[in-house]
Amino acid sequence: MNGKLxxxxxxxxxxxxxxxxxxxxxxxxxRTLNLANGLEADEAAKALMELEEFAPEEIETxxxxxxLCDVQTSTGSWKCSSCxxxxxxxxxxxxxxxxxxxxxxx
Length: 106
Hints:
Blueprint: H1 16-24, H2 26-36, H3 43-51, E1 71-72, E2 78-79, H4 85-98
Antiparallel strand pairs: 1-2
Helix pairs in contact: 2-3
């Protein structure tokens, strides 16, 4: 790995804010990729990998619609994209970036 972080995404899928967050997280992303490739992990990489793991019972239920929340924030809290326009936008941007069909369309 050369330390260069490249993201391949459709045009317009990433906002300037997304790019800013990716740049800020570059060191942690590289640590995670190194760990995934079997290289020795440091404590920061281990902690970052643990953030990716959760049990279904840890997902919060929306107090408004009573459905399971479907967006996890960087602080680990869960939000409902159906009830909160800010998180609906974030979910749509993430889905677009991942190449998923919009709003669950197939």
